[in-house]
């Protein structure tokens, strides 16, 4: 029970951290999409125009930002449900429930690592294009570098926003690894306990059957038979 309590507290703590990190993905990425008029910054390329010195943007697919957003919402929802479930848990979890926890942990791990890779590599591609005119990507924040015909692109906070999103994604990946390992340990522990209980039950049945067999192997004397000591008398 002590091991189960420690693992349960670790799961609750992990999901609380994952809840916070999922907000670090969703909120700044949503703000960035709003400031960029719905365009995704990740993997976006472009060329600097000589005529007016503006950045001629070739916007990348919105899916590079949509997937991390979906991941953040998924992690937030799962963490919220799991925290509520673990706090109210009184009885020991079943094998099916532990197996579902492992599957969810694998999904969270896969989605978080893909989102972290998308955000990191996509931001590098964007900064490579920006750094052709500026000494660093950070110094380009807030500069009027993109001219839109019908859109007003606000670049004031893109560096902080994407940096926070990147931190949240990699942090969520690290926490998801821990949560997945804990769920797997609980599943293995439950499987071992079940095997021990089954082994003890089979051994008890074997001993009971053996005792019953030994009792029947020495039948009592017949009613008409007499012992040797009675015949001598």
List the keywords.
single chain; 233 residues; mainly alpha; two-stranded antiparallel sheet; 2 strands
**Percent strand:** under 5%
Largest sheet: 2 strands, antiparallel
Report the span from N to C terminus: 67 Å
Q: Which percent range fits the helix content?
A: 55-70%
- Average pLDDT for all residues: 83
Number of strands: 2
Element-by-element helix/strand order: HEEHHHH
**What would you report as the Rg, rounded to the nearest angstrom?**
33 Å
The chain-level structural class is mainly alpha
Overall outline? rod-shaped
Weakly predicted, low-confidence segments: none
Compute the number of helices.
Answer: 5
**Main β-sheet, spatial strand arrangement:** 1-2
Describe this structure in words.
The longest helix has 59 residues, at 158-216. It is built from 5 helices and 2 strands. Helix content is 68%, strand content 3%. The protein is rod-shaped and about 105 Å long. Helix 1 (2-35) runs antiparallel to helix 2 (63-87). It is mostly helical. It has a domain at 40-197. It has a two-stranded antiparallel sheet. Residues 213-233 are annotated as: Disordered. Residues 224-233 have a biased composition (Polar residues). It is a multi-pass membrane protein. This is GH23571. It is found in: Membrane.
